[in-house]
């Protein structure tokens, strides 16, 4: 049995100043976030966005579904589906609008980080499998989404930029770069469990944290790693330090967030009172 309904979305009426730190920011654009109110939610309810299971978490006297919108999502209608344990399915549409991201041109001194040799490619292929396993993990843990900033510093590169390394186009920037001195502490943005940690060809020293139900944070280019796979960490706990390992042009933290296997702009998950105005193009 299937029914269609216009379920209420969490737009500005739920994002008042008192709640700004508790909920992510709604952004119905590629790389953004859609939030859906679930006042009658029960544990057996399954919520999907474009057929992909999404995270569900409690907020005040209700439950909220959080869906990441892929960076390559086309403008137009996308769909939430809410299947109750009774078999009744409710559907609602999300209208995603187009967003154009700027270009960024970087010069990388280590040319192998732009054009890897055959041995490098073998390593990259092995790491790709490892990364895929980490970023697609889904556990039943109910996520705590009141993220904090992972480190202090200036935003040196924003999400979604079309990137050119030594004038060669590569994948768009999939996270937020925070420039800081080597050794600056890096903290867990929320409670979580270490999925993987180690050194990667492009990402340098990197950590994946599982926050539950497909919400995963990533910390790359670290100078050092202070945790190991399986460790349970608390929000604000030091997990490493800013560095310049991997493919970099200087010391910074590359911070990324996954939701329903989708990379989203981390800014929408972070408190607004941090120095987001200090963006360097």
In terms of topology, how is this protein built?
Layout (H helix, E strand, L loop, with lengths): L1 E3 L28 E5 L8 E4 L2 E2 L1 E5 L2 E7 L7 E8 L5 E8 L6 E4 L11 H18 L18 E4 L4 E4 L2 E2 L6 E4 L5 E3 L4 E9 L3 E9 L2 E11 L6 E2 L4 E5 L9 E8 L2 E3 L17
Parallel strand pairs: 1-8, 9-11
Antiparallel strand pairs: 2-6, 3-4, 3-7, 5-6, 7-8, 10-13, 11-12, 13-20, 14-19, 15-16, 15-18, 16-17, 17-19, 17-20, 20-21
What does this entry look like structurally?
6% of the residues lie in helices and 39% in strands. It has 1 helix and 21 strands. Strands 10, 13, 14, 15, 16, 17, 18, 19, 20 and 21 form a 10-stranded antiparallel β-sheet that branches. It has a 5-stranded mixed β-sheet with strand order 1-8-7-3-4, with no helix packed on it. A 3-stranded antiparallel β-sheet has the order 2-6-5, with no helix packed on it. It is globular and about 60 Å long. 37% of the residues are buried.
Characteristics of this structure?
single chain; 281 residues; mainly beta; Immunoglobulin-like; Glucose Permease (Domain IIA); 10-stranded antiparallel sheet; 5-stranded mixed sheet; 21 strands; globular; disordered N terminus; disordered C terminus
């Amino acid at each position: 049995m299937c029914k269609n309904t216009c379920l209420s979305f969490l737009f500005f009426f739920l994002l008042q100043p008192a709640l700004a730190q508790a909920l992510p920011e709604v952004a119905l654009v590629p790389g953004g976030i859609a939030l859906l109110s679930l006042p009658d939610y029960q544990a057996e309810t399954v919520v999907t966005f474009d057929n992909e299971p999404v995270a569900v978490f409690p907020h005040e006297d209700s439950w909220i579904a959080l869906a990441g919108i892929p960076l390559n999502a086309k403008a137009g209608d996308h769909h939430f589906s809410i299947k109750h344990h009774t078999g009744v399915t409710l559907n609602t549409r999300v209208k995603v609008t187009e967003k154009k991201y700027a270009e960024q041109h970087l010069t990388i001194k280590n040319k192998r980080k732009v054009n890897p040799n055959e041995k490098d490619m073998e390593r990259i292929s092995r790491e790709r499998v490892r990364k895929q396993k980490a970023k697609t993990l889904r556990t039943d843990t109910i996520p705590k989404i009141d993220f904090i900033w992972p480190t202090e510093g200036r935003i040196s590169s924003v999400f979604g930029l079309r990137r050119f390394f030594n004038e060669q186009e590569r994948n768009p920037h999939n996270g937020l770069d925070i420039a800081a001195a080597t050794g600056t502490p890096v903290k867990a943005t929320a409670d979580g469990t270490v999925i993987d940690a180690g050194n990667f060809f492009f990402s340098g020293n990197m950590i994946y944290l599982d926050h539950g139900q497909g919400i995963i944070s990533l910390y790359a280019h670290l100078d050092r790693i202070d945790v190991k796979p399986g460790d349970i960490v608390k929000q604000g706990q030091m997990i490493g330090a800013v560095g310049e390992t991997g493919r970099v042009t200087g010391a910074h933290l590359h911070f990324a967030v996954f939701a329903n296997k989708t990379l989203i702009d981390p800014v929408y998950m972070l408190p607004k009172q941090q120095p987001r105005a200090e963006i360097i193009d």
